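At this stage, I put together a protein sequence along with its fold in token form, as given directly below:
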Amino acid sequence: MTKLLMLPRWGALTLVLALALSGAGAADAMAHSSRGAVYTLTNGTAGNAVKAFQRGNDGTLTAAGEYATGGAGTGGGLGNQGAVALDGKRLFAVNAGSDSISSFKVKHNRLELVDVESSRGDQPISLTVHHEVLYVLNAGGAGNISGFHASRKGELSPLAGSARPLSGAGVGPAQVAFDPEGETLVVTEKNTNLIDLYEVDRRTGLAAGPDSHPSAGMTPFGFGFDRRDHLIVSEAFGGGADASAVSSYEVDDGDLDLITASAKTTETAACWIVVTDDGRYTYTTNTGSASISGYRIGRSGRLTLLDADGRTGATGAGPIDMALSDRSRFLYSLNSGDDSISAFRLAADGSLAPVGGVSGLPDGATGLAAR
């Protein structure tokens, strides 16, 4: 006589779910159960949009919709880093073709457009947010940075008196970003080989400056901060073959003190920078070499190349922007040469293992953010 197995109510439910998720079904469900996501901008002239991808637990990406920004792009490269900024449940994006910025609320795996505001300048290319203060970098015309109050819901309000000039006109700015404490804004200028510092009043959000400093190497471009507030800057050296480098600095009360001077990548056109959450590693994309160079960051901020040949990872053609997922488990590279995103898993030793990306992005796509 066959015995019936009697399970408690919740035990039975668990068994049913386990059976339903067995085999390939379980693998698929686990691969895509993460709430992680990656975002980039289409930069379309007829209408800009944020293109979203769901990130699986294995780092792979699945298309998850397209969300109009309410503005327009330029359809071409912006020579920038930071066109998209993700801050918790808020996402901000530039509209370089219509001189505006957009804010979205992140709702699980969807985006909801909250606000569109003038960038208070020409051709916004980069933005940064710290708590409820947002600054945008305008590259056109005379060029400037301009501040906004960004509510927790993503609503934007211009900060009166916040607009500040760059070191001059036609400087070729690349990125604006706050330091981790929100006390200093940094802007890199490609054409002048300068790094601009602005002191930010934490009470009002207003910036003073710029105080401009010479870069250790030519064509300072992308940058990031480690956990000890060391500034890590890529140097494209005008795109010279195998001439690129990365430098590190101490930022202290408006001063910029050099730590590592132009540590060579051995690759071409290092432009974009990311730093891991634990501050142990930094990576730069080499646009002319279709590669990523990784460095170990010492406690003092000193940089050491991870691989003697400078090739920690190989990307699609023309890698530009990069982004790290939460806890820096995965690194993503936006590749302008073949309209793709490359994906890598980070190992404890800083090495990168490819996990497969996506292709078919629109020409001129710019900016990358991940969670």
